[in-house]
Amino acid sequence: MGSPTHGNHSLAFRVMRLCRPSFNSSAPLRLHPLDLIAGEDYLTAGDMRLPHDSDLSFRDRFLLGNPTDAMGLTGQLVLPQSFGAIYLGETFCSYISINNSSKFEARDVVIKAEIQTDRQRILLLDTSKSPVETIRSGGRYDFIVEHDVKELGPHTLVCTALYNDGDGERKYLPQFFKFVVANPLSVRTKVRAVKENTFLEASIENHTKTNLFMDQVDFEPAPQWTVTVLKADEDSGDSKIDGLFKPPALLKAGGGIQNYLYQLKLTQETAPVKPTGTNILGKLQITWRSNLGEPGRLQTQHILGNPIALNEIELRLAEIPQVINLERPFLVRLSLANQTDRKIGPFEILSQVDSLEDVVMINGLQNLVLPPLDASESTDFNLNLIATRLGVQKISGITVCDAKEKKIYDTLADLEIFVSSEC
């Protein structure tokens, strides 16, 4: 890849991209002469050896001399003939040569190479502190630069040289090599909340012209989340071997898609957040390999779930007896938590269910008053209940409200219990 130089310069830059070679495949479809007479099932590997091994002519160039000839691979590799497509997440590697095409040597050559984008300039090479002493006539100076591509859009590789020519004049040579970085993948996500679980579906599509082998598609959750990868059940002979030699997922060229499903749960030690705050679930780490194992890596932006809508005050069950007898008082331990950043209280615990219809009711004082809670503070307390009917019954209607303003904060989720008679 070259760039025109301005003025009369002794030196010139030449740039070649360093990337993995590709397979050289022969376009013609080869065949065996017996295919014209008998079916392919008639042939064996021994039958496919033709007696033209020493024939250097082209009369048998369409004939199968070996079963592997049907693949169309010649056994040769092709070096990149152009800059090619450069994708986000790859490592751009370039071999740069500065040539002296004049009859005089160039001395004290200071070489710089940098990548320029719309947002930044990244220095790749600078020989200011140790200039190249001389580049003789017809000689050259070669070097390699690398850059991890992290931005989309136009990029410019800027190569400059400051040198003394044959007349002792100090000259400055700039050359520019432009290329565009495209997006190899598109990631589409869907978030669904089902009760206490959040499900994240990620769909990854290949936009390149080559197959991609996905080495890793990992979801890194935010600190308040735990994640489980959900996969379809597959029969495997040895799970230990499968874990060590996990085959990569194939994304076919030009639109191949792979889907991934993750189950997320809030951790028990989740710090309280504001009810109107956004819910950051985490981000995806994606690594792949393309042509002959050339690696690539992408990290998505933060994936957002539904806004968190936690109650200011949460009332939940902490402990309940294993055995509950008919018309015998029993204690239920409840937990009251302040999920805001301010002090709230005092609180009143009461039952909102009609006592005539309630099978499980508060035993004793119907209203229990609790002291205020500081920000992010919680407290446990016992509630004395009694059951008046045998069998499977339901505890419901236990509510916490503000003791002064009578504002309702939360209601305990309905809980089923089994009431037995004393033996």
UniProtKB/TrEMBL annotation:
Residues 9-181 form the Trafficking protein particle complex subunit 13 N-terminal domain. It comes from the Eukaryota. InterPro entries: TRAPPC13, TRAPPC13_C, TRAPPC13_M, TRAPPC13_N. GO terms for cellular component: TRAPPIII protein complex. Signal peptide: none annotated. Residues 185-302 form the Trafficking protein particle complex subunit 13 middle domain. Residues 321-418 form the Trafficking protein particle complex subunit 13 C-terminal domain. Belongs to the TRAPPC13 family. This is Trafficking protein particle complex subunit 13. It comes from Aristolochia fimbriata (White veined hardy Dutchman's pipe vine).
